[in-house]
Amino acid sequence: MTQVSAVGDVVIVGGGIAGASAAYFLAQAGQRVVLLERETQPGYHSTGRSAAMFTETYGPPLIRALTAASRIFLESPPHGFAEHPLLTPRGVLMVAAAGEEPELARFIREAGGTVALEALSATQARERVPVLQPAAAVAAALEPAAMDIDVHALLWGFVRQFRRAGGELVTDAEVVSIQRDGARWRLADRSGRVFEAGVVVNAAGAWADELARLAGVAPLGLVPKRRTALTVEVDPALGVGGWPMVSTVGEGYYFKPDAGRLLVSPADETPTVPQDVQPEDLDIAIAIDRFTTATAIEVQRPASTWAGLRSFFGDGLPVSGFDPAAPGFYWLAGQGGYGIQTSPAMGRLAAALIADSGVPEDLLARGVSAGALAPGRAGLRRSG
Hints:
Elements: E1 6-13, H1 17-28, E2 33-36, E3 53-54, H2 61-75, E4 87-89, E5 92-96, H3 101-111, E6 118-121, H4 122-128, E7 139-143, E8 147-149, H5 151-164, E9 168-170, E10 175-181, E11 184-189, E12 194-202, H6 208-214, E13 223-232, E14 245-248, E15 254-258, E16 261-265, E17 270-271, H7 281-294, E18 304-312, E19 319-322, E20 329-333, H8 339-354, H9 361-365, H10 370-373
Parallel strand pairs: 1-2, 1-12, 2-9, 5-14, 12-20
Antiparallel strand pairs: 3-8, 4-8, 5-7, 6-7, 10-11, 11-12, 13-16, 13-17, 13-18, 14-15, 15-16, 19-20
């Protein structure tokens, strides 16, 4: 007989921010939870490579609702959750080049109904970020309440508190088989360890469709997309630490202060396959070109470069719900670039739906429904 290494009410596959937040809220609700991570530590892939911003203007309306619902937790986490604040002031400056003013106006109309935005002139924009070239910012909008997120503190807050509540974290646990055994799921990892639970949560990030196939569940058409980032050295006299993040409504780029440097991205979304993704030379060159065109800063070479995966379903929304064709198989995937800032709301929602207690009232009040995030919703591409 195969020896079972751990038994729980719920086994979560994937120790990124999605799996860790769900594990935390499930454990707080008294569920016995086992969290499996294929790498040596949680958050190695997308979570650890995030630009780490909290902005309520980012994404479609449902994402903005989940972000807004996460602010209270991020601003005032439970006592002992983290040693330092999870959020620190930053702001986001959205800029428009010549000809992009209508797009900026549309952004202000759509996001300004629920989020405080300040329309700025070109002069006012350059007062906040003096290196902006005049042609890059003929008009702008400032989201002053946007914040930097301490991703490390958030992720490890979830993990530590989950473990204190009795949860078990297992690393180096790449799942190689998943089978339904009566009313329970049985999972085995590469080293031969076996885990059992009534519910398995697919929080495997870019690998979510692959994990579903292992379980005999039809995938949902998840597409991992590569995003490139780099940091550049700047003159300390510029005082970049007080600048907001700068993002453009047009041809993609953004940059933000990062430990005395500037973090720069071309905002690329290149479809790829699940992998430990690395930056491409062309994308790095594009990022530098767009940045140096938009600013007065010259870049000889980046100080550091990396890439991460942001995974999307066909309709651009995440999935959180039980698979209608596989009892006890719960999807928690496709957070795209929104997973960090929505993690408190998404984790709480997953825990509530797994416990069959319904969508929390505050999320319902913001227009979040189980159907809108369900794996069986219209717009998702099932394949065999």
